[in-house]
Amino acid sequence: MGPEAAVEGSAKGEEEGRQIMDQAVNSKVENSSSVSFPQREEEKWRNGKGKRPRRGIYGRMLALAAHALAERQNKPEPKDLWQEPFVPASAWRPCAEQRNWEPSDGNNGYILVTANGGMNQQRVAVCNAVVVARLLNSTLLVPRFLYSSVWKDESQFSDIYQEEHFINYLTPDIRIVKELPKDLQSLDLEAVGSVVTDEDIMKEAKPSFYLKKILPILFKNRVVHFVGFGNRLAFDPIPFQLQRLRCRCNFLALQFVPKIQETGALLLQRLRRHVGLPGALDRYLIGSSAGSSNNESSGSAKKTSKYLALHLRFEIDMVAHSLCEFGGGEEERQELEAYREIHFPALTLLKKTTKLPSPEELRLEGLCPLTPEEAILMLAALGFRRKTHIFVAGSQIYGGQSRLGALTSLYPNLVTKEKLLSSAELEPFVNFSSQLAALDFIGCTAANAFAMTDSGSQFSSLVSGYRIYYGGGKMPTIRPNKRRLADIFLKNSTIEWRVFEQRVRKAVRQTKHVQARPKARSVYRFPRCKECMCRTD
């Protein structure tokens, strides 16, 4: 087995390992809609109730990392640290904008979608709905987003994405309207059997399912309402032009609203510590704001500077749902179990009725999220210098500031959007987690290098896919193989730094191979395929 196949097989293995608890994942939204903690209690969950030190089992390794960073502060970084293999990567160019069909008249009825989850899940649901609308020759209503007390976000489509651009850009593909005809508005959709939930559709259903099961409902009632619609359309097999439409929606039709673009532009200017030098992806992320020059400095523009973006997927929900342990002992176990009982009741029941893998087995299989300590040790081992500027997304990590201490002690130039933007600039977004996630998306996607800590994260998948699509072979993404890293971290009490460094670099280097999208894998994450991108060689 070659290195590309080994890496792909490992990543796929991690995803398959999660499938035993798939239904429990979705139960977070479905089963907790009537339960919410007071704000003070939520802070306890995020920050951890105790004040235990967070160096924990990695105290020795963190000390070795600090020494190594001090020793090489004036030495050059590894040559490939900020690069991906340019020649094979640059052989692919975006071409999802190319169309080879007539517009759909949408005469078979209307499709409503109320997508659940956060911004990333909703984005995927929207693009899948666009494809289903074309498949069924139906008219799509502007998607709506499901409110949940878990996400506590009332944002709708037009609060995040430019509605008119979405409608107009996709007009050559499908018909999109803002409301149902008058004669359908009063229809009790549930009573007539037009409400279709995720329980009614298998995960990654094939187009044939929609033609066989959903089209008859459209013919009968003229309307179908999908509720949830999380990952309910397969990636293969699917006709070429429908797959291309999927890419066209994700990479071209969904543009953030000016409010998000303008604040995103401020974020990028401060991350780069200069004014007026847009990055390679800026115009796709922040539109006309990419060319604006705010009067933040009266002098001439400084030389642009590189920054690394790091997505820490270590929020309380991820930590609790993983069923892993993270060095906090009995207090941590009780804390996470209490959280699961409230937010993941189906998972709690599953634990009581089914023999699940132990925390140790989960970790060896690469199914545990990297802790902040493990993530920062990985970056140090890869060769990022102490003075590297690092933007951290997903900063509401379990353990709070005490856990972030391990990161800032090694990399003092570590920032979040909350540090770079004033309270007045963030105020319009404070109660809207999806809009805040959009700012993180901009900061991560535009980075000179992006490091994910969980290959199964929808956010990281969308960011890395966007960087592939528009990056021209110059936007590297670090995708750690958690199974291999777990084996390395198990030796944290005895391994020497030089050996640790070598093994981490080898494990990560193998994930940098440029490859076409593997069969049945996401085009949002792997856009290097003939439907989304064209080869120039």
Automatic annotation (TrEMBL):
<keyword id="KW-0472">Membrane</keyword>
<dbReference type="GO" id="GO:0016757">
    <property type="term" value="F:glycosyltransferase activity"/>
</dbReference>
<dbReference type="InterPro" id="IPR024709">
    <property type="entry name" value="FucosylTrfase_pln"/>
</dbReference>
<dbReference type="Pfam" id="PF10250">
    <property type="entry name" value="O-FucT"/>
</dbReference>
<comment type="similarity">
    <text>Belongs to the glycosyltransferase GT106 family.</text>
</comment>
<comment type="pathway">
    <text>Glycan metabolism.</text>
</comment>
<feature type="region of interest" description="Disordered">
    <location>
        <begin position="1"/>
        <end position="54"/>
    </location>
</feature>
<keyword id="KW-0328">Glycosyltransferase</keyword>
<dbReference type="InterPro" id="IPR019378">
    <property type="entry name" value="GDP-Fuc_O-FucTrfase"/>
</dbReference>
<keyword id="KW-0119">Carbohydrate metabolism</keyword>
<keyword id="KW-1133">Transmembrane helix</keyword>
<keyword id="KW-0325">Glycoprotein</keyword>
<dbReference type="InterPro" id="IPR052272">
    <property type="entry name" value="GT106_glycosyltransferase"/>
</dbReference>
<dbReference type="GO" id="GO:0006004">
    <property type="term" value="P:fucose metabolic process"/>
</dbReference>
<keyword id="KW-0808">Transferase</keyword>
<protein>
    <recommendedName>
        <fullName>O-fucosyltransferase family protein</fullName>
    </recommendedName>
</protein>
<dbReference type="GO" id="GO:0016020">
    <property type="term" value="C:membrane"/>
</dbReference>
<keyword id="KW-0812">Transmembrane</keyword>
<keyword id="KW-0294">Fucose metabolism</keyword>
<feature type="compositionally biased region" description="Low complexity">
    <location>
        <begin position="25"/>
        <end position="36"/>
    </location>
</feature>
